[in-house]
Write a structure and sequence with these properties.
This is Putative NrdI-like protein. It comes from Streptococcus ratti FA-1 = DSM 20564. Helices cover 33% and strands 22% of the residues. The protein has 153 residues and is an alpha/beta fold. The strands form 2 sheets. It has a 5-stranded parallel beta sheet with strand order 2-1-3-6-7, sandwiched between helices. Helix 1 (15-30) packs across helix 4 (136-151).
Length: 153
């Protein structure tokens, strides 16, 4: 059984961090398990600060892309690659239950495209998504999914 709920994320504008903080509060109100959060942005000086995960986690990331249209032309992930590097580091992807993406629905097919690409590249599911800072309903919905994942371990 997992000893704690682990939320690993990267936040650049503060939207994802706001969501993860509200999600942590929600989870703490629903379980006695400790809820840990790690903002990969705090570790990005270089990979020397990365560490091997020994417990399961859920990853959260916003969408920052350059170029492409999300359908048939290429795109380049920008700004969020430290999270990709952390997930790949020491095969951390093996402990990832899945990824939750965020973005702006105005970007149509590119909405949460980075999370979809992580899911495909690492072989874990895209668990859910939310727009910008997310709504209270998003926090509850995603929180309940996370609680079910951890209950199944």
């Amino acid at each position: 059984m997992a000893s704690s709920i682990n939320l690993v994320y990267i936040s650049l504008s503060g939207n994802t961090q706001s969501f993860v903080n509200r999600l942590k509060t929600y989870l703490q109100s629903k379980t006695d398990m400790p809820v840990n959060t790690v903002n990969i942005k705090d570790l990005v000086k270089d990979q020397e600060d990365f560490f091997a995960m020994t417990d399961y986690f859920v990853a959260f990331l916003p969408t920052y892309l350059e170029g492409g249209n999300g359908l048939d032309s290429g795109d380049v992930e920008i700004l969020t690659t430290p999270l990709r590097d952390f997930i790949a580091f020491a095969d951390n992807y093996r402990y990832c239950y899945g990824v939750v993406g965020s973005g702006n629905k105005n970007f149509n097919n590119q909405y949460c495209l980075t999370a979809k690409q992580y899911s495909q590249a690492f072989g874990f599911p895209m668990l859910d998504d939310f727009e910008l800072r997310g709504l209270t309903d998003d926090v509850k919905r995603i929180g309940e999914k996370i609680l079910k994942l951890y209950a199944a371990v």
